[in-house]
Write a structure and sequence with these properties.
By secondary structure, the chain is of the alpha/beta class. It has helices spanning 6-26, 43-59, 74-86, 105-111, 123-130, 139-150, 170-178, 198-204, 254-257, 271-290; strands at residues 2-3, 33-39, 62-68, 92-95, 159-163, 187-191, 207-210, 228-231, 235-238, 246-249, 263-264. Helix 7 links the parallel strand 5 (159-163) and strand 6. Helix 1 (6-26) runs parallel beside helix 10 (271-290).
């Protein structure tokens, strides 16, 4: 079994990005600049944003963190979004999810300038992606594509099952795996918790991309010998042996699958680092377009 090591890949891509940034600076251009809006004090969100800021520091990007209290109004958040839209020094930005319940995430998403939407969530970018046009790809699917490409995993003519139908992962992933080109040219089925005979569909798959949000949902008897399995899930499971009181686990039973799969991504250390890397690749591209 080949371990799909997202952490190792992310370090390789980080070096490539730094070379691109150094070249931009040598030409007299400013380095890319990424901003992040964080509303509230969700620990997972704070940790995720910190990881992005550290990545920016490592590759020479500028970074701005706008930390707002949890009771920030929707109107006030929209004002911050408009400021970033108008700021010519900011190449791309993200509004870290989830947002407090009193804020309409869709309304905020629609307000983001598509040219600065480096998370790839704006409907304009999604629509362009669906039609095979140039667009910022959603960060997690983009990271998975990079993982497939850099590990040289064959996709053409393969049967791919995407487990989960979110707009952030499952939906765009099913479109991207079916597109012309590499990675792509798969026959794709998108399944979810309401799918009849779900296990049978998984057993047919050459490639499984699991993003259903249920710990250890995919068991060994649901996967055929030699399948490629990419685990997108990040679930907190109670663990009394950990100081934090919990451990992170994916949507697949890693221990049960590792002797059966040809390729398997771990959690943590698999798709997660590649999601951040994809965000940084989108930011680089946004800066290059501006330049």
């Amino acid at each position: 079994m080949v371990l799909l090591d997202g952490k190792k890949l992310a370090e390789e891509v980080k070096l490539e990005i730094k070379k691109e940034v150094d070249a931009m600076v040598d030409k007299g251009q400013r380095p890319p600049h990424l901003a992040a809006i964080l509303v509230g004090d969700n620990p997972a969100s704070k940790a995720y944003v910190s990881t992005k800021i550290k990545f920016c520091e490592d590759v020479g990007y500028g970074s701005t963190l706008i930390a707002l209290p949890g009771d920030t109004s929707e109107g006030a958040l929209l004002e911050e979004v408009q400021k970033l839209n108008a700021n010519g020094e900011i190449d791309g930005y993200i509004v870290q999810l989830p947002l407090p319940r009193h804020i309409d995430e869709q309304k905020i998403n629609l307000a983001i300038d598509p040219e600065k939407d480096v998370d790839g969530f704006h409907p304009m970018n999604f629509g362009k992606m669906a039609q095979g046009m140039d667009a910022f790809l959603p960060a997690t699917p983009y990271g998975i594509l990079e993982m497939l490409r850099r590990y040289q995993i064959p996709t053409e003519g393969k049967y791919c099952v995407v487990l989960g139908r979110s707009n952030i992962v499952g939906g765009p992933m099913s479109i991207l795996m079916a597109r012309k080109g590499y990675p792509g040219n798969c026959t794709v089925t998108l399944v979810h918790s309401k799918t009849t005979h779900l296990a049978e569909e998984l057993r047919r798959a050459d490639i499984i991309i699991a993003a259903i949000g249920i710990p250890h949902f995919v068991k060994a008897d649901m996967v055929k010998e030699g399948a490629v399995v990419i685990d997108v899930g990040i679930n907190r499971v109670e663990d009394k042996n950990k100081k934090s009181g919990y451990s992170l686990t994916g949507d697949v039973d890693f221990e049960g699958l590792k002797e059966k799969c040809s390729h398997l991504s771990p959690v943590p250390g698999g798709v997660g680092p590649m999601t951040v890397t994809a965000l940084m690749l989108n930011t680089l591209r946004a800066a290059q377009k501006q330049a």
